[in-house]
Give the backbone structure.
Amino acid sequence: MNFGPVQQSIAASLASWGVPHSGSELAALLILLLIPFGVAFSIAGVAQYFERKVSAVVSRRFGPSTAGGEGILRLVVNLAFFFLPAATRARLEKTVANLPGVKQILFVVSYLGLGQIVADGVKMFTKEDILPRDADRVLFRGATYILLLASFVALVAMPISQNFYLSDFSVAALYVSAVTGVGVVGLLMAGWGSNNKYSLLGGVRAVAQIVSYEIPIALTIAAVAMWSGTLSLHGMIAAQYHPGFLSFLGWNLFQSPFFLILSVVYYTAGLAECNRTPFDFSESEQELIGGVGTEYSGLRWGLIFIAEYTDMILVGGIFASLFLGGYQSPLGEQWIVALPPAWEALVHGAIFCVKFLASIGVMMWLRWTLPRFRIDQVMRLAWVRLIPLSLICLFLLAASMLWFGHDGQVAQVIHGRFVSSLVVRPEGWQTASVWGVTILVVAVLVVLAKKFGDPKPMPEDVRKALVGGEG
Amino acid sequence: MSHEILEQNDDLITINMGPHHPSTHGVLRLVIQTDGEMVKTCKPEIGYLHRSIEKIGENLEWYQFVPYTDRVDYVCSMNANLAYALGVEALLNTKPETAVEIPLRADCIRVLFAELNRISSHLVGVGAASMDMGAYTPFLHGITQREFINDIFEKTCGARLTYNYICIGGVMRDLHEGAEAEIRAFLDQLEPAMHSFNSLITTNTIFRGRYAGVAPVSREMAIAYGLVGPNLRASGVDWDLRRDRPYGLYPKLKFAVPVGGAYGGSKGVLGDCYDRYIVRLLEIVESIKICRQVLDMIPPPAEKADDPIGGYRVDVTKKLRTPPKGGLYTRVENPRGETGYYLVSDGTKMPYRLKIRTGSFTSLSLFETLVPGLMVADVVALIGSLDIVLPEVDR
Amino acid sequence: MILSWIRELVDGLQATYGGVKETVGYARDYVKGEGLGSVVTTNYPEVEPTLPKGYRGHLFNEITKCTGCKSCARSCPIDCFQIETELSEGTKLHISRFDIDLSKCIYCGLCENACPHDCLHMTTDYQVDPKNSVNSLGKRYLFRRRPDQIAEKLTTQDMTTLHRITAQGAKDEADRAFFDRIEDVNKGKSLIGLYGEGFWTPEEKAHVTAVRDEKKRQKEAALKAEAEAKAMAAQAPGAEGNPS
């Protein structure tokens, strides 16, 4: 198994310190695998803070604004000097609090509510681990591990950059889609093993939802694979390479109007996979208290929570790779590719992070904006709307590719490196004509639908009373 | 425990949406049996908030009971105060020697504050209903507007929730300095805020999909089960006590009464949850109109020479020590429907019997027949749309 | 059918777009700090809320104006008042005890309304720390005068000063000393404060218990006497309506 140049270099340095060769590769692998853990845990913690802040901004509150301050100081002092008796620690804390500048720092930390991150972490670690009576021990405990497993194993396939990545296998896109499906087992285990009817209902709903929305995701991946000629995520990114200053033109989003529609389909299906509003029916507080996670507390709940946020990272990352050109920058990509390896990895990694963090941000925003669907509406959306839509787009995409004579052949991508002269794309006029025709047809359909679609709109006077003159 | 209430049935799941639940709007226990997601039987159980207010009233003097009426429905306590005050005044008016004439300023302030409280109560009802559907933001925006109303009330009567303001004979204190300008400014900024609120949630397709066509209550069923208030009007019955059995200042005011009309688009049915929701929103619009009319009508405070109190109250303490004997039923239009007080007096300074009739109690009686056939999520939608407040149910 | 399918898709997108537009508007207002989006929360306890003048908070009785008429106690729906008065030299009642149990009080304001001498007010105090119920004078508040102060006559100057201190608070040490001399906090007085065991000093507890036991004893004795009287009357040969 080949994990790329980074693993080789770590293995080489380990070998130079005297670790035997086979062990050094394994050790390097293990070190590398710590990276997704670190990333996921830290992003989950920070994301929790931003979730609260976003909700506060949208609802005209401060949000977390006073968590921290003296509490953080006390925590730090007590942890760092745990060997001292309590009275000494208390006095030490008072002394530190009176040092110059400390009060200002604490004020800033507490004003922005940054202490919330620490507080959430401490809460997760220190709450009591409860096993409900009559709950199935193996199922209850195993569920968290399986949920976490499903998300983290898929995280290995994320394409971070050309020179620094965790893995590059030739079926990465399919692999991610398949592995996240393992989470379904975890949800069922949690739902049944909690000995709680609310959890059971929540688990059953979540399973139905996730299984249904895997299909639009698979169809979307199939469409992009058809276009790019490869299932490897690195390969799909390479197929979106565009030399020249305006490198965003190479992105799949702009290559074909069907990709635009499919990106919306993928994002919606991804939201449903992560159980986020508007699809968070399986964990809606108002009905099910907490869905499958009702009976979990402390770190076990924390692990479920991190699994959810890792899913969001996954969806964001794959969305970026499929449609937004992955780690490529929107402008001037050819100069970044020419940078020395370490710089290139840094820049590309940063761009990739920005992209998936932006998509997580949009997910958070949508959570506070939209109400949630009912479970049968969720199913309807998947089977009656998204799957036919993605099938139609797939079919029309294939038709357009036939018309162009574009076989979707991308030259072999070697270790993620681009071989620019071999990327084949349709001509400019072909792309433009497909765009034009599609926009025209969609506009006509939308206008017709608006006029004849709804037999009973709201009476005009009622509507005006509710939303004012502009409507 | 749940199995004691409903018959044991091994094919169905018995779920106890118990008194501790985020969306039952209080301590209501609903025991439902579901076949997967479809509910087959439902039995509500109440009494968790029973405080024997009616019995307490038999041991207090007439004027001492007013703070208790606040707690009967604390979301709209001005209206509850008003109902009781009107009841006792009607009782006193049955004999000429104890008759009470409320000055015009007191009447105006009463109606103004009752309508402001109607707005704030509907904001809570509508906001909580949308929060049950997963939209967390509109609730908080509704609460923000409610806080402005609470600020106005706080300046006038000193409290933000249980006002104890409308008393027998008038109101406890006069309007504070600059009250009228403040209320006008508030109403001016409430209209665009409601437009914004509605564009966020009411016209949202997802929300409409959750509410339209869910649990429709037909006209006949509404009348048969004794529904009142916005729930009755949403089922198409054009009945509003303020217009049809007017009291206080209402005969002089012009306002429309919104009635349900299957507003939910292609899936909407008359009397469904969406209609109830829309009727409450439209009532907020009407209340704003009423408040503006009343603000134009308020007379200035009385001169000290004419009226030592100041034109906002008449002193009824002596009359309350020997009210006329007899029983009387008075009803007013609460935001939740008809709130009626059946007062029986035996001539002493304490009532013989006080019975409170509330709208939420009868709304709750719909559950056993209406809920079977809905999905579990729709049960939550139904509770939210009926705007049931448990202290009113249990008293 | 196809048209309604398309329409539902378009509606969904429109709903999302409309919602996001609104909330982005709120966010923009939040950042700019104006309009419908400006923040309405205050950061308690760093920022204390500004309460209006008529706010119904804790009760305060200007004991120097109080005549002990007990109108407030009569009007209270909850019976939080404990008022005891004694005759004293002169025409005014001496108020030996004036306690309001603030944990029972529902802050309805009926007592404030009922007071004929405008001495019972509701203040804007709302915070209570059980260990430390201090009021604006910096002392645990008291409404009781010591029994041996019945004889002490206060001069008009003293009355004015006392009136000022109770209305506006103690300005400096001299005021505090004056108040101490008049009312002598240190000997354990009744407090406007919370109900509970730890709250009473031992002397107060003994006093309260003794008074309560005495009342109970008297009531029982009265009942017993009445029962005995009834029994005697029933046994007596001249009982009415009772054919032997």
